[in-house]
Amino acid sequence: MLSAILLFLLTGVIMGTPLLIMAMGGVVTERSGTLNLGLEGTMLTGAFFSYYIAITTGNVWYGLIGGMVSGIVLAFFHGLAMIYWNTNQVVTAVAINMVALGLTNTLMGNFSKTTSAGNNISPGFDALFKINLGEAIIGVNWFLVLAIIMIPLTWFVIQKTTVGLAIRAVGEYPTAAATMGIRVRRVRMLCFLYTGAISALAGAALTIGDVRVFINNMTAGKGFIAFACIVFGRYTALGTAFGAIVFGISEAIRNYIQIFAWSIPGGYMTAIMMPYIITLLLLIFSKKGVAPKSWAIPYEGDED
Amino acid sequence: MKKIISVLLILLAGVMLTACGGSAEKDDTLKAALLTGGPVNDGGWNQMAYEGLMALEDIDYEVSNTENVAQEGQKQAIQAYADQGYDLIIGHGYEWGDALTEMGEKYPDIKFLQIGGNAGGKIPNLTSGEFKSYELGYVMGKIAAATTQSKKFGFVGAMKIPTLVAEVTAIKGAIKESDPSITVAEIYTGSWSDVAAGKKAGEQMINQGIDTIIGIGDACDAGVIQAIDEAKAAGKDVKFIGWTGDFYKAYQKDFIITSGIQDVQGVIMTAAKEVQDDKWVSRYYLPSFSDGLLSIGDWSPKATAAQKAAGEAAVKAIKDGKITPKMIFGLSGAPASEYYDAQELIYKK
Q1: Which burial class, exposed, middle or buried, applies to B111 when counting CB atoms under 10 A from its CB (0-12, 13-18, 19+)?
Q2: Nearest CA to B44 among B254, B280, B218?
Q3: CB A140: neighbour CB atoms within 10 A?
Q4: A85 in contact with chain B, both atoms CB, cutoff 8 A
Q5: CATH architecture for residues B25-132+265-285
Q6: Is residue A303 part of a domain?
Q7: Most A CBs within 10 Å: which of B66, B195, B337, as the mutation test of the A interface?
Q8: DSSP track, B86-112
Q9: Touching B: A residues 13-32, CB under 8 Å
Q10: CA A56 to chain centre
Q11: CB distance B152 to A223 below 8 Å
């Protein structure tokens, strides 16, 4: 029984790995006062380029680095428009997500003309170690280790370091921060690029870290769920991590309900919607008014 | 000014991406278009149609396709091709029935083909080819029953739609007929594109001792195969049976016992030749084992004689008319509600 519960929790955490990595990256941008709804797009871009570069070069590390660079490039244009040119943050993100979807679809369409199912499998990261739980064998790869390390690290950097203080300052009172000599736009932009790199890394965790193929739109809304986790987590690293893990576990529940044919109200539909029902509940019960004071408000101050 | 530039840049990027559709040229070349609800590189259902479309280039068709069309965008997608003067427009899947019928009435000169549905034959320019997938399910179920050692079988699907239910019910029926002690677990991931969800479903099944899995649902297959590959590295013997495409041929992995083939390309080619030779007949027909459009794919070298015998005996029984849909669905012993949709679909004609 104990091993069954452990298996269940472990499966949940592993399922939540890409989400956890992305949410840990995303929370930094939100704390710096920028609304980043483009997580989905950067994740998808990172997923594609890490896969594409890994399969064409045969080296997973090139794939990983290339994927992260692609995320930074996309985030650069996104950040340039929002932070330096003060465009509408929601509309810009929608555009970025559409560009990412179109771009990866088109590139993958061209690429898959040269391959076929079976020989389109990229190299990937093998499991670091395996855990045996009764009949079950669970492989743990280093993306999970990285995700776990990122939780205290992100918390520490945001709460306990001068860098974190600067990030929080531009998110709360950018004008005050500017008078203290902090270059508001630059800090926000750097946070944004960091998030771009990390969410692309989360995309790489999906492809070269997990399934080793790329399918159009394979992120299937994970970027938006990561955002929901951040809001639920009250824009803190620990709360966000909790949200991401709960979501991962709810995905595991979805499968367990079906494997064991548990009878629940609504049957199959409830099982399928379980992760989304739990996300909704999280959002409903998350506290209002905890966002950084200048969150989603462009900085209109002097040039820096 | 900067704002305007940024908006223009994004618009430009969007236009560059969507402009690939190209414009119509007026000439005598026949033109065919394929519309799919999912991505055409899914390695399964949609990819087969895409390959079928590409094969039309060999018989001098000009081809184009649009993928990831959402339900609410179907009519616009069809209209776009109709306005460009396409001669044959293919909607790939059960969900295209209503949109094709409506646009078929609007454009009587254009021929429409639906694959995997039953809307055809009611108007003069719409044909539907719906695979007798319950026959395929029966055969694959017999092979699965001959494959499992642990007496635990798993099925991973994307969404619980009528065609899928019909297939699964037939698979379950055949398994239970062979050996009632085999348990059947099902997981639907809820997404046609989420490969990671398919892989996790496969892993969870393997961790419950399931040793034979059929995956139906485009992107799910790739995920399940990856899960089995990793389980194999950890010393577990799990088998996969493919659906729609020839998975052994594609992946060359020993654990893929065989596949149930639906010859989508054959259905597309038949319709395209009818248009070309001006012999179009509007109808609703059921490609089956008897006409060769359903078949068993390549066998893995690890496939046993028992597995091959089970498959071939099932095909023979179907060809000899000894197995009927009613029998197949009566076999499972599942509650009526579970295969109600499937039966309704099959008996609707």
Answers
A1: buried
A2: B218
A3: 17
A4: yes
A5: 3-Layer(aba) Sandwich (3.40)
A6: no
A7: B195
A8: -SEEEEESGGGHHHHHHHHHH-TTSEE
A9: 14-15, 18
A10: 25
A11: no
Structure tokens at B300: 């893995």
Sequence-separated (6 or more) residues with CB below 8 Å from residue B17:
A99, A102, A103, A106
Inspect the interface and report whether the beta carbons of B222 and A117 lie closer than 8 Å. yes
Which contiguous run of DSSP H or E holds residue B196? helix B195-207
User: Which residue from A165, A196, A44 is spatially nearest to A105, judged by alpha carbons?
Assistant: A44
Measure the CA–CA gap between A63 and A223, rounded to whole angstroms: 21
The answer to whether the Cβ–Cβ distance between A268 and B188 falls below 8 Å is: yes
Average pLDDT score over residue span B268-286: 90
Which residues on neighbouring strands pair with residue B256, listed in sequence order? B240
Beta carbons within 8 Å of B247's beta carbon, 6+ residues apart: A117, A118, B221, B225, B240, B256, B259, B297
| Cβ within 8 Å of B, A 196-215 | 206, 210-213, 215
Give the number of C-alpha atoms closer than 13 A to the C-alpha of residue A253, restricted to the C-beta side. Answer: 18
Residue B334 pLDDT level (bands cut at 50, 70, 90): very low
Within a domain: A300: no
Angle between helices B162-178 and B336-347 (to 10 degrees): 120
Residue B13 confidence class, pLDDT cut points 50, 70, 90 = low
Residue contact A272–B190, C-beta within 8 A: yes
pLDDT exceeds cutoff 50 at A80: yes
- Determine the Cα–Cα distance for residues B49 and A117; give it in Å rounded to an integer: 14
**Which among B67, B68, B59, B104 has a CA at the least distance from the CA of B86?**
B104
Count of domains observed in chain A: 1
CATH topology of domain B133-261+295-347: Rossmann fold (3.40.50)
Residue A293 domain-assigned (yes or no): no
E strands present in B93-203: 111-115, 126-129, 152-157, 183-188
Report ipTM (2 d.p.): 0.83
